[in-house]
Prior knowledge:
By secondary structure, the chain is mainly α. The chain contains eight helices and four strands. The chain starts with a helix and ends in an 8-residue tail after the last helix.
Amino acid sequence: MTGSGSCLRRTTLGLAMLLATLSQASSPFDHPQDQDVIAQRMDQFVSARDFSGVVLVAPDGRVYFQKAYGLANREHDVPNKLETKFRLGSTTKQFTAMAIMILAERGKLRLRDSICSYIDNCPKTWAGITVRHLLTHTSGIPNFTDFSDNDRYERLSMTPLETIARFQDKPLEFVPGERFSYDDSGYLLLGSLLSQLDGGPTRRC
């Protein structure tokens, strides 16, 4: 899919609402073999919410229903297929946070550590930013998905380091810990920390 970070968050929210709708629909799960009932429910959902995506109903690993809806690329009018790959967006944040906490529990990092302990060529302005600040969206690092040129970059295949370079030299928006501001940049940095520390040497807690 193409679009800004806010579009990705809206898509994730739409998927969550979809799952809630299906889980509350007793008929499909009382009689999962009834594909017509599931299809009807989905048609109602798509019509009401302009949903784009792929739906799979597979209780106990048995596939009862699967169908693609809407467009994978609105600019070029490319329809979704069962094989379409989707960006997970902010769905990954909860797993990133858990992985960081596991490494902290194992003594491979400390939440109070400066992130510059783990980042090469760390900007001086980041010296006061801790791992905890990244986890809690309180670092002050600008959110790269809010940049005016982000739509152009989202269409490109970029490494984490290339994306980090987009905000690495920008001034902080506020003093670390001063306030909350949702920040994709912080979680990209956490992902980078994970790739460096997983399997690395143990640090004292």
